[in-house]
Each structure stands twice: as C-alpha cells, then as structure tokens.
Amino acid sequence: MAKETGEPSISTERWEELMEIYDGCLMADGFEEALIGFGTRFNSPVTIYDLNKCISVLVERDEMSPDEAQEYMDFNVLGAYVGEETPIFLGDYVNEATNV
User: Fold this and answer.
1) N or C terminus of the chain with fewer C-beta within 10 Å?
2) Strand ranges, E, within 1-100
3) What is the pLDDT of residues 20-54, one digit of tens each?
4) How would you class 11 by CB atoms within 10 Å of its CB: exposed for 0-12, middle for 13-18, buried for 19 or more?
C-alpha cells in the first residue's frame, strides 16, 4: 500500500487491528503520519508519536519555521495533559553531560 500524506505507514488491515487492540487511545489530530506506535501508561492505552516528525508536519503543512513549530509543540501539545490517555511524544534528546 503506497503511503499518502496523512496516512499511517502500515497496511489498513494492520491499522484497524491495532485500533481495536488499543481502543480508547487519544489521537493527536493532524499528526497521523508521525504515529510510530502504541503503548500503555498506568494500564491505559496510549499512542506514541515521533516528536521530530510532528515538527516537520507543522513546518510543511502549516508553513511554520522550525522554531515556530517547536514552540507550538512545546506550548500547545507537549504542555497539554488530557488524562491518562495523553499521547507520548518521543524525541531524540541528547544528554549534554555524557554526549549520549
């Protein structure tokens, strides 16, 4: 299945299967192409997104600068708590002290 913008990069069948397994997950509207998986937090299903891909979506789709997109994510998305089902946004942070 060819991936179109805004669609998950997995087969429709697998997507539907995962949505049944993780029924109740909150989805981050507009960031479908940044979805990288599912997990659990306190026995609640959660979606997991690639933070850098979310920023890229804002830059490409909404024509934000990278700094504007980061600020938007920090203030409007990462700073929002919507209950135990709040999605996880996975970044690739580097620990400056150890360069890991």
Assistant:
1) C
2) 35-41, 44-50, 88-90
3) 888 778 889 899 899 998 998 888 889 999 999 99
4) exposed
Query: Following CA atoms 67, 73, 19, 9 in sequence, which dihedral angle do they give, to the nearest 10 degrees?
Result: 0
Q: Which two tokens stand for residue 53?
A: 């891909």
7 contact partners, CB below 8 Å, separation of at least 6: 32, 33
41-50: per-residue pLDDT in tens?
888 889 999 9
* C-alpha distance from residue 39 to each of 27, 69, 86 (Å): 13, 25, 11
Q: What pTM, to 2 d.p., does this model score? A: 0.75
* Between residues 17 and 97, the one the model is more confident about: 17
Q: At 19, list the tokens.
A: 């949505």
At residue 5, the pLDDT reads 46
Helix (H, G, I), strand (E, B) or coil at 12: helix
C-alpha closest to that of 30 among 2, 58, 51, 68: 58
